[in-house]
Amino acid sequence: MILLFLFLIHWYFSLFCQSFFLHRYAAHQMFIMSKFWEKFFYVFTWIAQGSSYLSPRAYAILHRMHHAYSDTPDDPHSPHHTENLFTMMWKTKKIYNEHFTFKVKPEERFSKDVPDWNRFDRFADTMGIRIGWVLVYVSIYVLSISVFELAGTHWWMYFLLPIHFMMGPVHGAIVNWSGHKYGYANFNNNDQSKNSLFLDFLMLGELFQNNHHRLPKRVNFAVKWFEFDPTYPLIKLLHASGIIKMKTLQ
Predict the structure, then answer these.
(1) Mind telling me which PANTHER family this protein's record contains (predicted)?
(2) pLDDT exceeding 90 applies to what percent of the chain?
């Protein structure tokens, strides 16, 4: 089942980069790392996200806005102020592009100290590079299914390709929609953030949104005894190895 294995590898590596590097590092600065490792994770995120690469700078600005305006009309991606999942994604894309292209100047509290490697972002965002990643994914599927007819591959697996193409936005849409509509709340945060426990194994801790909105600087998104944040042990491992330095151990 090589293609399903490939899909899972792409899913979880892309998601880890979004959770670890874009979210917990770029947006919240929960830990520090050297410039060498910062650039390493820029490149690693590009490889993991491929055609759906998200700029750490633009992502961090939008996410800080999300916390400041959670579930209000000014929230860049609240499911409670958009008609459906697709209009929410389109609104997010529009605001993201405004900040990525520097057409809009954010408030200092949203842009202060965010990582910014603009030259690399512009390279990764070029249409030719994104199409190149798309062709890589398509080629792997065509060779596996139609040319070599590898065991365990089936024609229906071609339907996985659109998720490969849009992996980053797909993860963001799941977290922003489900994490503010479905589940339970440990805290009253004056918003609609929820902990979607039964979906979180797919999202590496990102769906403990209620906990995270209450404790935005806490590295471990799990709070209750029955909650588990899979990204947290990986962050502790990176801390123990000296690659990063956590500001707090929780």
Answers:
(1) ACYL-COA DESATURASE, DESATURASE 1, ISOFORM A-RELATED
(2) 91
- Mention every residue, 6+ apart, whose C-beta is less than 8 A from residue 6: 140
Give the C-alpha separation, 63 to 27, whole Å. Answer: 6
Checking if the pLDDT of 249 tops 90, the result is no
For residue 91, give the amino acid letter. K
Tell me the pTM.
0.94
Instruction: Assign 3-class secondary structure to 118-154.
Output: HHHHHHHHCHHHHHHHHHHHHHHHHHHHHHCCCCCCC
| Cβ proximity of 223 and 238 under 8 Å | no
Q: What is the distance between the alpha carbons of residues 73 and 95, in angstroms, rounded to a whole number?
A: 13
* Phi-psi sector, 50: left (phi>0), alpha (psi -120 to 50), beta: left
- 245 backbone dihedrals φ, ψ, rounded to 5°: -130, 110
**Contact in structure between 201 and 192 (CB atoms under 8 Å):** no
Q: What is the pLDDT of residues 32-43, one digit of tens each?
A: 999 999 999 999
Which amino acid does the sequence have at 93? K
Structure tokens, 60: 């961090």
Cα 146 from Cα 160, distance rounded (Å): 15
